[in-house]
Design brief:
single chain; alpha/beta; 14 helices; 4-stranded antiparallel β-sheet; binds calcium ion
Length: 517
């Protein structure tokens, strides 16, 4: 049963203390630690366990071990495929229109209900280390140490209650160092912990630690089947985005040709053009991106080893996910935002000894609105009624409720900033996906697309105008309306903002969101 946030917090504060002292020892043994590992823009295609085109290269042995020892979720999706809004959803268990964070720009209301506040009030030690990409002071954490905004790959600054500190090294290594420091030295070991370890990698501009760059510089990666998608069956949104490897990906800024001579020779001075240049850029992009992923994987290995070496493995749930998926050349793109599978989907792996059956696979429709509820359920803490997702614990136990959702809602807002992806909302049943692009710069105010993923897994054939699908389209439109009602979707006005205004930046924010990405 769900209760309101105020009631839940009140109940916890009044009754929690009394109950805690009496049964603390027994209860704490029953409640698991939670290690939530999270990265930025990590496509499921780039995790071996998902069996995509890089799987044979054994690039992610530690992440794969979480799947082998636990559960791989194959239909995990986000509600809004972009960084800061996804993180706001993670903390609140709500879609963007409810937590107020619809785009990267703008502030996040930290005073609102967030799951970690409830966990902390209910006896958990809570920590947030790494990239959160939400401006302002974190709340509900016993310890937090975060990158300001997007953060830096090299020698990054961190912000905590104590102010700013710079560490020397690569961000992926340092975030792990800081997490291990907290786990081993700072936490209260008499309480269960919930530690969120959030990597910046493999976010753009995909700068790996040098040891990984060297390891990947000669590797050659398979191309996606849709690298040269011509968008012929789609509307204006796919045709007029600004996120293609061909036109948008910059040789210097993105592929670092001004940093590495070999890259400069290849991309700027070799005379490559057309498809050959796209292919060369794709290979360099993959070398950097997958080298960043390998860095995350190696560091996750360090954290898993810590758990094992310190007798924490058995009673710690380890979960891995990312703030959304990413295009690794599919449809000719990098970046995210669209409701097409590669960015709509996100990886989710979970290991929980004696609860999750090793090597299991879940194919239910799950979404990032479910994460907060899942943590609360694991911690035997009541779930507030205002949260919009559902606990995944029954699914982890192999017992999907009979009334589990049959369709998912999606809504992307950030236009025209970023990569010029038009606003859209949509619904998927797993097999069919209906998308409505709308608003600024969409002909006649709206354009619809329908994909049949069983017959068209790469989503290259829009069936919206095909009369054979008219019944399915009508049914999906009805489901879309039902989901809008269920989630209490409000239409948020869209205004064109041609130029970023420095004046709008509040001077008291030291932890700013990055507006361009
Ligand atoms: Ca992201």
């Amino acid at each position: 049963m769900k209760k309101s946030f105020t009631n839940v917090l009140g109940t916890i504060l009044v009754l929690g203390t009394a109950l805690f002292s009496a049964s603390a020892q027994a209860q704490e043994k029953a409640r698991p630690n939670i290690l939530w590992l999270f990265s930025d823009d990590h496509a499921y295609q780039a995790i071996g366990a998902y069996g995509d085109r890089f799987a044979d290269m054994n690039l992610t042995p530690n992440l794969d071990s979480i799947a082998t020892q636990g559960m791989r979720f194959d239909k995990c999706y986000v509600g809004n495929s972009i960084c800061a809004p996804s993180r706001a959803t993670l903390l609140t268990g709500k879609h963007s229109h409810k937590n107020g964070k619809i785009e990267n720009r703008g502030d996040f209301d930290h005073d609102q209900m967030q799951f970690q506040k409830l966990l902390r009030a209910n006896g958990y030690q809570t920590a947030m280390i790494g990239k959160i990409h939400l401006s302002g002071k974190m709340q509900g954490f016993d310890y937090w140490e975060v990158l300001p905004g997007q953060g830096k790959y090299e020698n990054p600054d961190f912000i905590s209650e104590k102010g700013k500190t710079q560490y020397q090294g690569h961000s992926t290594d340092i975030i792990t160092d800081r997490a291990l420091n907290w786990l081993s030295k700072s936490r209260d070991k008499s309480k269960p912990f919930m530690a969120m370890v959030h990597y910046k990698a493999p976010h753009r501009n995909w700068l790996p630690a040098e040891r990984f760059r060297k390891r990947f510089e000669k590797l050659v990666f398979p191309e996606p089947e849709t690298l040269f998608d011509d968008y012929s069956s789609r509307g204006v949104a796919a045709q007029q985005q600004n996120m293609s490897i061909e036109k948008t990906m910059n040789n210097n800024k993105d592929l670092k040709a001004n940093r590495w001579k070999f890259r400069d020779e290849l991309l700027n001075k070799s005379g490559l053009t057309g498809k050959e240049l796209v292919r060369a850029k794709y290979q360099e992009y993959m070398r950097d991106y997958l080298a960043c992923v390998a860095g995350v994987d190696e560091n996750i290995g360090r954290l898993l080893k810590y758990l094992k070496d310190n007798d924490l493995e058995k009673n710690t749930v380890v979960m891995y996910s990312a703030d959304q998926g990413f295009y690794l050349g599919e449809h000719g793109w990098f970046d995210k935002r669209f409701m097409y599978e590669e960015s709509f989907r996100t990886p989710l792996l979970a290991k929980w000894p004696d609860v999750i059956q090793p090597g299991s696979v879940n194919e239910d429709l799950v979404q990032n609105i479910d994460f907060a509820e899942t943590f609360l359920d694991m911690a035997k803490t009541e779930i507030p009624s205002e949260m919009q997702g559902k606990s995944l614990v029954p699914l982890m136990k192999g017992k999907t409720p009979s009334d589990w959702r049959k369709s998912l809602y999606y809504h992307y807002y950030e236009y025209p900033t970023g990569h010029r992806v038009r606003r859209h909302e949509g619904v998927t049943t797993g097999r069919y996906k209906l998308i409505k692009f709308y608003g600024l710069d969409v002909p006649n105010g709206e354009e619809w697309e329908l994909y049949d993923l069983k017959n068209d897994k790469h989503e290259i054939s829009n069936q919206y105008a095909n009369p054979e699908y008219s019944g399915i389209i009508a049914d999906l439109k009805e489901q879309l309306q039902k989901l809008r009602q269920q989630y209490e979707v409000v239409d948020i006005a869209q205004t064109a903002k041609k130029k970023k205004s420095n004046k709008s930046n509040k001077s008291n924010k030291s932890n700013k969101s990055n507006k361009s990405n």
